[in-house]
């Protein structure tokens, strides 16, 4: 046999097992509309949560600030009332006011004071005698 004839003759090979290949299928492209909606939800839900959280915190801070302002006004008012009461107490406990009130009630000053000593069983005219 010549080489040209050998080239033309097909070789006989042992039969090989061919893996079963499934036929190719056409796959639809993913629905871009639903992926856009998912992306929009992924972005918008946290953004809305952050904005609402900011508004809530801002509202609470304003409320607390208002309460602090009211309490500071109340503190100032109570402090002023306290000072006014202290002034009234000082005025009413001054010696001249006490003397006027005592005279108005019919009291008279003591002419002479005596001191009683229980230990010595005696009455003294002067405290220095104790």
Task: Describe the protein's architecture and organization.
With 130 residues, this protein is mainly α. 59% of the residues lie in helices and 5% in strands. It is rod-shaped. It starts with a helix and ends in a 6-residue tail after the last strand. The model has no long low-confidence stretch (mean pLDDT 85).
Structure described in brief:
The chain has 130 residues and is mainly alpha-helical. 59% of the residues lie in helices and 5% in strands.
How much of the sequence lies in strands comes to under 5%
Number of helices: 3
Main sheet, how many strands, which sense, barrel?
A: 2 strands, antiparallel
Q: Tell me the structural class.
A: mainly alpha
Topology:
Layout: H1 3-8, H2 32-92, H3 95-104, E1 115-117, E2 122-124
Antiparallel strand pairs: 1-2
Features:
130 residues; mainly alpha; two-stranded antiparallel sheet; 3 helices; rod-shaped
């Amino acid at each position: 046999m010549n080489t040209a004839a050998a080239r033309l003759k097909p070789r006989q090979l042992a039969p090989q097992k061919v893996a079963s290949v499934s036929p190719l299928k056409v796959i639809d492209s993913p629905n871009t509309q639903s992926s856009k909606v998912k992306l929009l939800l992924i972005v918008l839900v946290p953004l809305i949560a952050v904005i609402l959280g900011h508004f809530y915190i801002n509202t609470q801070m304003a409320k607390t600030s208002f309460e602090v302002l009211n309490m500071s006004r109340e503190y100032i008012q109570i402090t002023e009332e306290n000072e006014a009461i202290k002034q009234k107490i000082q005025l009413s406990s001054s010696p001249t006011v006490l003397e006027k009130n005592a005279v108005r009630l019919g009291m008279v000053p003591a002419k002479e004071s005596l001191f009683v000593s229980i230990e010595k069983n005696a009455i003294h005219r002067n405290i220095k005698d104790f």
